[in-house]
Amino acid sequence: MTIDEIRDNFSLLDDWDDRYRYVIELGRTLAPMPEAEHSAANKVQGCASQVWLSKQIDRSGGEPLLKYLGDSDAHIVRGLVAILLTLYSGRTPREVLATDALAVFDEFGFREHLTPQRSNGLRAMVERIRSDARETLAAAS
To answer: How far, in Å, CA of 22 to CA of 80, rounded?
Structure first.
């Protein structure tokens, strides 16, 4: 699924209960994360729920690609992770740094509909991925 498909589906849903259900459904589409990846190193700090992001760097092509698995113990957060991975996983570090995920979430209306703790957690997830991108770029230079 692409971010444009998610955007189109979101635009069809006027009611926030329906939008929340859709986000939860997106969370169910996440690839399973092996239990070993639910480690302290992969845990995202700053989230009210437990969130894990596991990074792999694919160097088989020209520029490295950041690929992620993600998981959470909260259904709605799993959905937010699914949207983030749609935006960022499989992208180059430059593409990651050029993508403003928070603007996309604002466009969907999440700023008004997430608790402050969830918003902080979302920012922590975005910053973790952006930090990975900066580190990968620095290592490549």
So the answer is: 11
